[in-house]
Structure formats: structure tokens, C-alpha cells
Task: inverse folding
């Protein structure tokens, strides 16, 4: 059996469909973000990054870097083991307290990534609560879907952002059985925001737990960066809040925040927490510095919203088709995998602008796009270059303007 040939056959199908992923090899330069050096077959060149999830540039913030240096110099590189076996560091405990405080919860628990926190927490809660039924928004992230599958609990998928459909399904279930409703606040590909209050009304009416993924909102929204739920005054009504340290906070890691009992339950039973090496102390220290800074500073959030609004206005004025939303994510709609890659390649090679194409299976076929994420450190000059380049390529490729805007 030629296993390489079996693998290559499926890879060829990806290439033919225009969905084969090619990574840009970048070297970020401290203090120069969003500019980076790109390494390629013909040497290196400079590019401006427009698709990073380091939404506020906190991965370059002096306080974050200083905290990581200090922890690295004082404690060394690794955590030394799992949290249970010598791996619990003082920075872990302090960071969990700060995260719990940010979300107005009794406790928080760190994981090695946002993907792992969703997979482990949802898998554990849904899997170990007796006869639990899980209700998952149709637009949920792969990490949530995999966690729910791992739980082997009964699963129901409700229409995206539809409290009415959620209510319909919950009403059909035994009112006495445990129920867990899982959804996101900001959906990363369309950039739409869920109707959290209405969803919570439905959850509370049926006695269901609520689990919200705020990974694309923490740090960015709310007076202290607690996310959309904080901005809307709803954190106290949510059972579990999940977030990441790898996007707006600029480092790496994931977490949940909830009651002492729920956090202890996940801590005690989640294999994705128990059996994995803890985050290095320097990582936890950097994340702690970032969280503390953004809890007290609104400057980055204000600048971020201003930059996002400016990019939207400029693209709208030129008729570049964008998906309409109220978040910081700007999906520029292309609608064809080959065209999306072509535009991305031309932006990179001809204009020094890096925007990764988003194709199936990340988004449905026919909705391929470029996902632009402005940050406070993108200058007016950066915006000018991006807008001009996109407009020129759109005209040269004879692509429709505005027609695909949603």
C-alpha cells in the first residue's frame, strides 16, 4: 500500500479546488509591527501584515516584553511539568485571579490555547454532567464542535444567532435534564456579534447553562477588556466565559472563567488540562502584564476602533465588497477560491501587503474572502497603501464591486 500516494491524491484535490494552504514565513520585528520580514525562495522582503489576530499589537508592547524577560531571567524557560506535577507557577495563579476578576467570576483556569480550553471544558462539562444535552450555534468554531463531539453528549445545532430556534429546541427537551448552550460573541470569519441578552433570556427560561466563547472580543470590548458581555453588562448572567491570551492579549494560551465549583470540576476531570505541560512562566508573566494593562487602559481599544472605522470607510468609498458587521473584523468578499488566492498573492508580491485568503472549509464555498484586521499600529500610510492596492487589483481582475456586500 502506497500511503504517500493516498495522501498526495487528497492534497491534489485541495490544490485543484484552490484550497491548498501555503504559509507565509514571517519574522516579526519588535517595535516595527505591523511590518515584518518575509522569507521566501528568492530571499527576504518587507511586508505589512493585515491579517493578524494580535489585534492591538500587544505582542510588541514594552510592558509585555519586559515581563517576559524578567520571568525568563528569573525562572528559566519551561514550567517543569503539568500543573499537578510541579508545573503550577505563581504567575499562573495570579493570572487566573486577574482573569476571574476581569470577567466578574469567582475563578478562572488556564489552558495551553483557546482551542484546548474549548475542547477540554466543553468536552468535560457536556460529557460528565449526567444526561446532558448540548445546544450548539451553527456557526461555532471547530474547537467547540470537537469538544462537544468528544463529550459524546446528545447534540442539537440551532440556527446561527437565532434565539427563536434555540427556544424551539430547548422547549422540546425534558425540562429536568441538564442543558448546555454553547455560542460565541464575535464570530471570527463574518465578524457578526451574537444577540447575547436574547440568548440568555432563552437559556434562563429553560434552566440551561450558558457557555460563551469570547476569544475575538476579550481585550477589545468593554471598559476593562472583558469582551462583548462586559460591554453589554451581561457577564453575571453567563455560566462560563471562555477566552484566549493569543489574540488581543498578544501572547498565547486559553482560559475559562466561572464559579469555583465549575472551574474546579473542569480542573479535576478535563484530560486536556490534567495531562498537558503547563504554560512556561515567561508566557504567563507576559499574558499577566497584557491583561493588567488592558484592564486599566482604553487607549488601545479606542485607537483600534478608529483604525477599523477608517479602513471600512475607505473601502466602502471604492465599492470594495465587504460583509457588513459591527465588529473589528473586515471580511472583503471575493467568492472564488482561486481569485482569493490570486489577490492575496498579488498583494504580497507586488505591494508588500500580507492578507491571507480564507477558503473552504474555514468558510463555505462561494464565500471565499480576505479577512482584514486593522490594528492601532497601522498608520494612515499603511491604510493608503492597502486601499490603493486592493482597488487596483480589483480593477485589473475585473471583479465586481459592492455586489457581494452583505
Result:
Amino acid at each position: 500500500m502506497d500511503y504517500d500516494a493516498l495522501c498526495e491524491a487528497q492534497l491534489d484535490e485541495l490544490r485543484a479546488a484552490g484550497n491548498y494552504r501555503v504559509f507565509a514565513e514571517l519574522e516579526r520585528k519588535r517595535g516595527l509591527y505591523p511590518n515584518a520580514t518575509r522569507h521566501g525562495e528568492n530571499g527576504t522582503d518587507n511586508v505589512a501584515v493585515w491579517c493578524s489576530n494580535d489585534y492591538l499589537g500587544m505582542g510588541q508592547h514594552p510592558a509585555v516584553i519586559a515581563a517576559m524577560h524578567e520571568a525568563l531571567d528569573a525562572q528559566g524557560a519551561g514550567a517543569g511539568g503539568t500543573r499537578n506535577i510541579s508545573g503550577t507557577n505563581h504567575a499562573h495563579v495570579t493570572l487566573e485571579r486577574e482573569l476571574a476578576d476581569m470577567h466578574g467570576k469567582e475563578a478562572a483556569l488556564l489552558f495551553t490555547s483557546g482551542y484546548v480550553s474549548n475542547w477540554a471544558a466543553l468536552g468535560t462539562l457536556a460529557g460528565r454532567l449526567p444526561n446532558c444535552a448540548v445546544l450548539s450555534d451553527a456557526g461555532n468554531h471547530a474547537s467547540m464542535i470537537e469538544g462537544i463531539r468528544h463529550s459524546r453528549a446528545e447534540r442539537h445545532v440551532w440556527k446561527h444567532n437565532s434565539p427563536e430556534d434555540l427556544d424551539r429546541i430547548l422547549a422540546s427537551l425534558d425540562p429536568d435534564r441538564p442543558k448546555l448552550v454553547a455560542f460565541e460573541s464575535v464570530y471570527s470569519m463574518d465578524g457578526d456579534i451574537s444577540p447575547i441578552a436574547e440568548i440568555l433570556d432563552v437559556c434562563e427560561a429553560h434552566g440551561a447553562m450558558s457557555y460563551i466563547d469570547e476569544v475575538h472580543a476579550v481585550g477589545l470590548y468593554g471598559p476593562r477588556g472583558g469582551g462583548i458581555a462586559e460591554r453589554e453588562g451581561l457577564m453575571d448572567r453567563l455560566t462560563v466565559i471562555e477566552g484566549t491570551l493569543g489574540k488581543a492579549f498578544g501572547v498565547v494560551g486559553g482560559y475559562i472563567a466561572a464559579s469555583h465549583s465549575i472551574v474546579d470540576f473542569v480542573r479535576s476531570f478535563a484530560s486536556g488540562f490534567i495531562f498537558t505541560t503547563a504554560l512556561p512562566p515567561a508566557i504567563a508573566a507576559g499574558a499577566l502584564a497584557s491583561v493588567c494593562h488592558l484592564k486599566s487602559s482604553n487607549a488601545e481599544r479606542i485607537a483600534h476602533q478608529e483604525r477599523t472605522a477608517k479602513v471600512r470607510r475607505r473601502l466602502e468609498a471604492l465599492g470594495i465588497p465587504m460583509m457588513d458587521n459591527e465588529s473589528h473584523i473586515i471580511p472583503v468578499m471575493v467568492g472564488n477560491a482561486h481569485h482569493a488566492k490570486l489577490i492575496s498573492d498579488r498583494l504580497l508580491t507586488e505591494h508588500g501587503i500580507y492578507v491571507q485568503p480564507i477558503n473552504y472549509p474555514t468558510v463555505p464555498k462561494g464565500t471565499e474572502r480576505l479577512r482584514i484586521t486593522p490594528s492601532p499600529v497601522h498608520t494612515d500610510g499603511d491604510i493608503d497603501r492597502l486601499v490603493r492596492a486592493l482597488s487596483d487589483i480589483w480593477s485589473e481582475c475585473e471583479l465586481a464591486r459592492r455586489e457581494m456586500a452583505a
The two ends are 48 Å apart (CA to CA).
